[in-house]
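Q:
Got a chain?
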Amino acid sequence: EIQTQFGAVAATYVESKPHARGEDLPILVRAIGAKGAEIVLDLGTAVGHTAFAVAPHVAEVVGIDLTQEMLDQASRLAAERGIRNVRFLHGDVMKLPFPDRSFDVVTSRYSAHHYREPLRVAREVARVLRPGGRFLLADTIAPEDPALDTFVNAIEYLRDRSHVRDHRILEWRELLDSVGLVSEVVHTWNVTLDFTTWVERMRTPSQAVGMLRTLFQQAPEAARATFQIQNRGDLSFCLLGAMLRAERGPAPLTLGDRAC
């Protein structure tokens, strides 16, 4: 599903404002606390926006993604921009093709809501991180309120059939803690979106677009306020974003840390 969905729209992500120029991107780079010698892994790298932002501050960045068309765009951009310390690999984040303790930093930006088994991914992150290494997770999230959680995940799935779940912050923190990654929230923000651009970027089918417009127009007051739904002229709204920084402790790997 992911490869089919994103292969067809890879080029649209090159200029996507939230991905290429979102307010969270420089904050993520600062939150890494890089000293210049780090080896970084970027999960779900897509067309490489996060990898390119991090690259000037570290020794090397490896971007991994399941969709070859996204990686082709990333490689093209790296060549055009003369960025030589990044490389891109085709691979599955649930089964990373790297030895234990290979990376100082792992990043995941706007990709975690596609993870079908987030616990497996978290175990893999813990496995490939060196002791004291950091995981930076930035993604859209669901509010803690169950009704608002249902609303945002319904619109996300209607727009993009490869969407799995916008998790709540508490869910992410508990999951990371379960694999030995101690987390903190370092930033929250609103991802402001124009409805038409949002659905066109994913080439959402017209029937689903109509259903989405109805959901937004008939949204309950709590949803209208939380997601800042505006219906003057063209429809606009925001999704909620959060960034977590998690650190791997100094303890050696145990069997419980390893991926199944």
